[in-house]
Amino acid sequence: MSNEEYKSLFLSESRDIIKDVNNKMVELEKDPSNQDVINTIFRGAHTIKGMSATMGYDPIVKLAHSMESLLSLVREGRLKAERNIIDLLFKGIDSLEEGIDAVDESNGKGINYSALVEKLKKAAESAGAKKEDAGQTCPVHIASAIDKVVEDKLAQAVKNGPDSLAGRSKPC
Fold this sequence. Notes:
Layout: H1 3-30, H2 35-55, H3 58-75, H4 83-106, H5 114-126, H6 140-160
Helix pairs in contact: 1-2, 1-4, 2-3, 2-6, 3-4, 3-5, 4-5
């Protein structure tokens, strides 16, 4: 599989995840305590982080990681998904989407999320997370299970082509 094919797969999968996460964020607005929704949003950020790291899109990795860290605090009940947190996560998702578009247009050149990453970290710190813990994510056993799913999808795409992934069909 060529770099362009990997990039195409990254773009397709990332856009699907962003769409799903946006829908779940709307659900979270309606029910901020819904753990299933919170977990789905967390997994989306984690998966985008992993795929971006694989492709070398570091600014997207840093942003997704910061979102994931904040979501981890929400999952643990250390932070409530109040309006300010939801708004910050929406900004993160919009920025991830812009970053994915930038990858499509310019291979991700020139994207910088340092201001937003700082806001996400400060929100995590305000929840009582120590500064050094504000960048931490989920426990290793959970991260490993999620990483295994991503690894399996990529292996499937490498072996059988990107159209072999569930929900993908070949163009007419």
